[in-house]
Amino acid sequence: MSTFKAAALQMRSGMDPARNADDFEALVREAVSGGAIYVQSPEMTGALMRDKASLKAILKSDADDPIAERASSLARELGIHVHVGSTAIARADGKVANRGFIFDPKGERVAVYDKIHMFDVDLDNGESWRESATYEPGKVSTVVDLPFAPLGMAVCYDLRFPQLFRAQALAGARVLTVPAAFTRQTGEAHWHVLLRARAIENGAYVIAAAQGGKHEDGRETFGHSMIVDPWGRIVAEADHDEPGVVMAEIDVEASAAARQKIPNLKNARDFEVEIGAERRKAS
């Protein structure tokens, strides 16, 4: 299969996982009615909740998580691949993972990714975040070979680390994914340009389902879920922060064509950085 229809779901997850699961299901069904066979939800599909104690009180393990269960059921019923961008998961060691899943048309989990880069920042106007105070960062980048394309998994703040996506592209990924809950402040400044840059740098499609709007816990997210082609063109976008679905036809061969025109992945060379009299290998 050289082409397939992909959908990115834009959500406004609140603090009730059951309600969020219902909203998620409604959007999945809308996407499938439009012909999508791959559907991606945003970061923290299950719940957006700033209070650490309240979040931990509702956490479930992989086996019992309501979003994972709903995604598996929908994938099996509708015969599609469902990519839960991420949700908070209780790990066996007592820690918390910001974890994404992909389920195949049999409802089986075929890929898992734990967000690697933690959003520990101090922004303007007193906005401050410390994800590392709640979540244990992942250590493994995931590329999964789906029937329609090799796909790389990432989550939100990972977008600012181009080496992650380059490694996935070098491992064969033709589609890169960035489900997110970008803050309004950072989204307005950088969301579009970073997504387009990752697509251009790697000659790959980028699919980015986003949270959008004012959430129950008080945060504001940027929305603007989008799909970008390997030449950096935005081929589908929700130009707002309201819940909804954006879809586009993905031509996997366009990735190969872009990489042939601009073979930067092949042309990269090792080098050192000189700092005074010292030289260090670039990483």
List keywords for this structure.
alpha+beta, Nitrilase/N-carbamoyl-D-aminoacid amidohydrolase, six-stranded mixed sheet, 7 helices, 28% helix
Question: Would you kindly provide a written description of the structure presented here, covering whatever features stand out?
Answer:
The protein has a single domain (3-281), classed as Nitrilase/N-carbamoyl-D-aminoacid amidohydrolase (4-Layer Sandwich), CATH 3.60.110. Helix content is 28%, strand content 31%. Strand 12 and strand 13 form a beta hairpin. It has helices at residues 17-33, 52-58, 66-78, 162-170, 184-202, 253-261, 264-267, and strands at residues 3-10, 38-40, 81-90, 96-103, 109-114, 120-122, 128-130, 142-146, 149-153, 175-177, 205-208, 212-214, 220-222, 226-228, 234-237, 244-251, 272-275, 278-281. The protein has 283 residues and is α+β, with helices and mostly antiparallel strands.
The sequence of SSEs as H and E is EHEHHEEEEEEEHEHEEEEEEHHEE
Count of the domains: 1
Could you report the average pLDDT, rounded to the nearest whole number?
Answer: 95
Give start-end ranges of low-pLDDT stretches: none
Architecture, CATH level 2? Answer: 4-Layer Sandwich
Which outline best applies? globular
What is the number of E strands? 18
CATH superfamily: Carbon-nitrogen hydrolase
Class inferred from helices and paired strands: alpha+beta
CA-CA gap between termini: 36 Å
Query: Largest beta sheet: what is the strand line-up?
Result: 5-4-3-2-1-16
Task: Please bin the fraction of helical residues.
Answer: 25-40%
Count of individual helical segments: 7
Rg over alpha carbons: 18 Å
CATH topology: Nitrilase/N-carbamoyl-D-aminoacid amidohydrolase
Major β-sheet annotation: 6 strands, mixed
Query: Into which percentage range does the β-strand content fall?
Result: 25-35%
